[in-house]
Amino acid sequence: MGNKKLFNSKEIMDSPIVPEWGKAVFSDFSQDMLSEENPFPCILGVEGLKKDLLRFAFVSSPYNYKDIRLCADALKEYMSCFRTLGRYTSFVVFFEPEHKKRTMTQYETMFWDTLTFLHRIDGKPWPEEIPKNPNDPLWEFCFEGEPIFVVCNTPVHELRKSRKSSSFMITFQPRWVFEGMTPHTKMGQQVQKTVRNRLEDYDKVEAHPHLGWYGDQENHEWKQYFLRDVNNSFPTECPFKLKRSERDGVKKSLY
Question: Which Pfam families does this entry report, sorted A to Z (predicted)?
């Protein structure tokens, strides 16, 4: 795919480097995000796409070391420049559509394996201000020394349409994007109200009970990363695996 790993939305369709499957899944993504008839719930993502603040990468498989290294390199490049892009920025990774069908459980495992693989080849240490224990309300996935909120979309989501995509897809939103958005600020309250109202119309299932505010004592970020199609089914422990070099001071029973 050449040396270029990171693309903005204006480059994709005319690029000879982006594979045809990549252009197809990006086209589907754009149509969903920019639909006026059926507004997408994530207003930050929608605004980011409209303002060309999102960045994209196209990866064949999360289970191939060369491919996951490409994903890590693209994420590293993004993390080096995201603050220069704008508040509504995100990094979206599309993985090549597969011919075989996978279950929700298989995609969930694939997602957590991908985060674990990325963590293992991350060259920077876990930031000191972010807990390493996923049960801590201040825990967040980290890469390149930055906390990042992560969202997974799959082709098998049907009821939770806001998590459906034409291929396995992961979105990385730096925690920096959400600064100033809390349940106590006007901006935070307005964003939450708009997102919840859109979710009610967009999805065929009620908003997930684990959706909450970062830092709230009853909230755990990892539970929001991968949402299944139904609200009464979710893992009891975080599947993310911290690498050995970072495990000091963390309860071994978690890993």
Answer: YqcI_YcgG
What is the distance between the alpha carbons of residues 97 and 168, in angstroms, rounded to a whole number?
Answer: 7
Residue 161's alpha-carbon distances to 97, 164, 203, 240, 241, in angstroms, are: 18, 5, 5, 25, 28
CA-wise closest residue to 207 among 190, 193, 217, 221: 193
Amino acid at 56: F
- Which of 21, 22, 20, 25 lies closest to 6 in space, CA to CA? 22
The Cα 116–Cα 113 span in angstroms is 5
Which residue did the predictor score with more confidence, 163 or 212?
163
Tell me the per-residue pLDDT of 52-82, one tens digit each, with 9 for 90 and over.
Answer: 999 999 999 999 999 999 999 999 999 999 9
Inter-CA distances, 143 with 37, 74, 75, 92, 114, Å: 36, 12, 8, 15, 13
Burial 65-88 (b: 16+ CB within 10 A, else e): eebbebbbebbbbbbeebeebebb
Cα 115 to Cα 130, 142, 143, 200: the distances in Å are: 16, 9, 10, 29
Output the six-digit token pair for 10. 């204006």
How many whole angstroms separate alpha carbon 21 and alpha carbon 153? 17
Whether the CA torsion 90, 211, 137, 168 is positive or negative: it is negative
Asked whether 162 and 42 are in contact (CB, 8 A), the reply is yes
Tens of pLDDT, residue by residue over 176-219, are 999 888 778 888 888 888 899 999 999 999 988 888 888 888 88
Model confidence, pTM: 0.94
